[in-house]
């Protein structure tokens, strides 16, 4: 397809890349490599498939796949056909999947073979669904079509059908829906957020402008990125899939998140998005190396290097003074240790490192900056097309998420709630007029977050309006800040829920990290289940240490006075977490009401 005038859509970027950078690698998926020219050709063939399946403009094409080439190619193929691609989380239970598929009225769904049984089980509950297409080798079951068979035939007919695809794609405009993203559902059923091409392009233009300003230009085409977080999450979709198109990147797709640590050193990304827990895990790998080092002098050396990195990181953020001895040690450790750590992690070629989707502990940012990796925080939400603010890559301000992107207006309401407007903002929720009217008021999005600005316009998020704890003394406390302080204090700590409305002090429910077995094994703790681990004295001592360490960063009124370590893990399947691992606070409060009440029992032990 030849280049055309930029219509302000995601499709315009793909078209440009194929025409001007056709030989640049676009996708790496295992042994498979596609250039941008091949990317566009494959996507156009998928558009032909969808058109032949009767998909018309505005209809939803459902996607449930791992992070793989077919996922993003079908996403673009659906757009080329005039449809709205919508990715569903791979962790959804059948009832949850039935809800979002029915709410979005998807007419065609394209799914990995492992998810096919769930779709067959709910098919009768989806009146709009006409066709199921399965991705994977081998023949498709009766009543299901094969993605490979359909796309092979479409590729053969593409020379005769390309004008048809061009005509359909030309009808897609900036104000059309590029996707529908279902929010996490922390306070009720998930809401389908309509995200437009204009919203996405505004984000991309703002991010590129910030990067170009801070780096004195944009990275060259072919820079490496990695996609491993769920593509149903708009942050991942925006920073790897859409931004990959804008940067003309080469994106490697990692199908299994558990393989990320092994894959990063092979990929060595230039641009890397991670949620705070991933950054914490990477930091934990360094500290674990010190703990497990059997040779005492080497262990002492690593521990000193970590301490110096923290000191220099704090100095680079301007929150501490660094003496000449520390600077000299840092230079020595850079030659001996730090560069080796970056290489071992696969972070040695990083140009842009981003943390998003949740608050990150300042200690993590400080350590990595001392290590030579500057992580910048981005802030946004699904309703803002993923990103509203981005910290400076050249001089990030600790404790802030940076200033607004170009084209974004921010202000605070009288009660401190952050309001936002601009083309970046979603037009509303699918099938939810009341929720839309409550959230989008007079052109402003009510974010639900409480914020403040410094003199330079940098935004700090100080809590969720609906998640504030008001204790018995009438003090307002951000539950999220307290939970983060505890969870970031040890890699053994998983999800934390803090409680204290109308109570004299805060209490917490604590779970083990999903990777608790590795932590225990490194210390010779022989336990076979989360319940056994939760009962182990050494494990409990570490949790107690984490609570105390977290409390050191909190004011007296914010500190956790009592806690209990649960003998089960939380995830989206057990109901306490959303697919993006956010707490469903009401679910936890109701499910563990007895445990919470016990923590306020005057006769109870201090720690349980």
From TrEMBL:
This is Acyl-CoA synthetase. Residues 15-430 form the AMP-dependent synthetase/ligase domain. Keywords: Fatty acid metabolism, Ligase, Lipid metabolism. Signal peptide: none annotated. Belongs to the ATP-dependent AMP-binding enzyme family. GO terms for cellular component: membrane. Gene3D superfamilies: N-terminal domain of ligase-like (3.40.50.12780). It comes from the Bacteria. One of its GO terms (molecular function) is long-chain fatty acid-CoA ligase activity. InterPro entries: AMP-binding_CS (IPR020845), AMP-dep_synth/lig_dom (IPR000873), ANL_N_sf (IPR042099). The keyword Phosphoprotein does not apply. Pfam families: AMP-binding (PF00501), AMP-binding_C_3 (PF23562).
């Amino acid at each position: 397809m030849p280049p055309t005038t930029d219509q302000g859509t995601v499709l315009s970027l793909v078209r440009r890349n194929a025409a001007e950078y056709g030989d640049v690698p676009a996708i790496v998926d295992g042994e498979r490599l596609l250039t941008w020219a091949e990317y566009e050709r494959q996507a156009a063939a998928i558009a032909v498939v969808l058109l032949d399946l009767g998909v018309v403009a505005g209809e939803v094409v459902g996607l449930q796949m791992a992070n793989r080439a077919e996922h993003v190619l079908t996403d673009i193929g659906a757009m080329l056909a005039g449809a709205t691609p919508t990715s569903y989380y791979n962790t959804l239970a059948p009832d949850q999947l039935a809800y979002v598929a029915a709410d979005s009225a998807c007419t065609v769904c394209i799914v990995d073979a492992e998810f096919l049984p769930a779709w067959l089980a709910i098919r009768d509950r989806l009146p709009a669904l006409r066709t199921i297409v399965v991705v994977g080798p081998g023949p498709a079951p009766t009543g299901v079509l094969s993605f490979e068979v359909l796309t092979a035939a479409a590729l053969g007919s593409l020379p005769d059908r390309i004008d048809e695809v061009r005509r359909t794609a030309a009808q897609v405009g900036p104000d059309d829906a590029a996707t529908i993203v279902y929010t996490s559902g922390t306070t009720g059923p998930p809401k389908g957020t309509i995200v437009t091409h204009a919203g996405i392009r505004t984000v991309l233009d703002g991010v590129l402008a910030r990067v170009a300003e801070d780096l004195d230009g944009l990275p060259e085409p072919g820079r490496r990125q990695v996609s491993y977080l769920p593509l149903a999450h708009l942050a991942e979709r925006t920073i790897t899939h859409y931004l990959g198109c804008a940067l003309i990147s080469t994106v490697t797709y990692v199908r299994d998140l558990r393989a990320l640590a092994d894959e990063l050193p092979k990929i060595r990304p230039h641009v890397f998005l991670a949620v705070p827990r991933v950054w914490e895990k990477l930091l934990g790998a360094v500290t674990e190396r010190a703990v497990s080092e059997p040779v005492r002098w080497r262990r002492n050396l690593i521990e000193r290097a970590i301490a110096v990195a923290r000191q220099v990181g704090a100095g680079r953020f301007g929150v501490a003074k660094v003496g000449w001895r520390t600077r000299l040690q840092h230079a020595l450790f850079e030659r001996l240790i730090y560069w080796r750590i970056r290489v071992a992690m696969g972070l040695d070629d990083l140009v842009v490192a981003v943390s998003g989707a949740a608050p990150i502990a300042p200690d993590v940012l400080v350590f990595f900056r001392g290590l030579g990796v500057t992580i910048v925080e981005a802030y946004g939400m699904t309703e803002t097309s993923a990103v509203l603010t981005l910290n400076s890559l050249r001089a990030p301000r600790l404790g802030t998420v940076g200033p607004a992107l170009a084209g974004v207006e921010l202000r605070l309401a009288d009660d401190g709630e952050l309001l936002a407007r601009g083309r970046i903002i979603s037009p509303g929720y699918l099938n939810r007029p009341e929720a839309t009217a409550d959230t989008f008021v007079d052109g402003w999005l009510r974010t639900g977050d409480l914020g403040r600005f410094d003199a330079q316009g940098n935004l700090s998020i100080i809590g969720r309006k609906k998640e504030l704890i008001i204790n018995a003394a009438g003090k307002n406390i951000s539950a999220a800040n307290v939970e983060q302080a505890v969870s970031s204090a040890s890699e053994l700590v998983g999800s934390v829920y803090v409680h204290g409305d109308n109570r004299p002090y805060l209490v917490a429910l604590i779970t083990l990290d999903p990777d608790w077995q590795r932590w225990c094994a490194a210390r010779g703790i022989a336990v076979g289940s989360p319940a056994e681990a939760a009962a182990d004295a050494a494990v409990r001592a570490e949790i107690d240490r984490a609570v105390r360490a977290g409390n050191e960063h909190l004011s007296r009124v914010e500190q956790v006075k009592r806690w209990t370590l649960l003998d089960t893990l939380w995830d989206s399947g057990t109901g306490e977490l959303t697919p993006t691992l956010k707490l469903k606070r009401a679910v936890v409060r109701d499910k563990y009401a007895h445990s919470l009440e016990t923590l306020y029992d005057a006769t109870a032990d201090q720690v349980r």
